[in-house]
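#onboarding

Welcome to the new folks! Below is a worked example of what a typical request in this channel looks like: someone posts a single protein sequence, and someone else replies with the predicted structure as tokens. Don't worry about understanding the tokens yet, we'll cover that in week two.

Example request:
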Amino acid sequence: SSVGGAVSTQIRNRAIIAVAVASVGILLYMAYAFRNTQSPMLYGGAALVAMLHDVVIVLGIFSILGVLFNVRVDALFITALLTVIGFSVHDTIVVFDRIRENLALSPNESFESVVDHSLAQTVVRSLNTSMTVVFTLLALVLFGGESTRVFVLALLLGTISGTFSSIFNASQLLVAWENGEIQRLFGRFSRPKPDIAFPSA
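Example response:
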């Protein structure tokens, strides 16, 4: 039921490695799956950012729960995180695939209009799929066994966050990159500050 510091450190390190390997694999797969688009790595990068957003949300909430209610994570929590990663990317791929199809059907339409139209087509499907999972997990959290409650709670939080990020984060990152907003943001941070000349006395 509990482990010492050495074992917990080993579990933490393996969890970091597992998430890193999964991230690289997802990035390469997304780049291959969307190789016919103008920026295949961009689709993989946007899906990766949305996925890491979900992982950070779950980790952050469990960190707060650990401080307030002494909630402890275990190996099942790592399994839940990897499951959340898969669910988040799956939902994002559905949206991105519709964007790719609509880009081919409407080559003269602006990119943000295509993304907006694609989101409108997939949002009902995403919400319906996620809500069926959320209701099932919520029932397990409320009436399930104590041994799997942390695992199910992590899945529940990750499912909600994954649905949000697929609709509101990943696609908006694509639009921001295509419009040059992200490049201008990084350019603003990397631009050297002008020297300030002080008047001589």
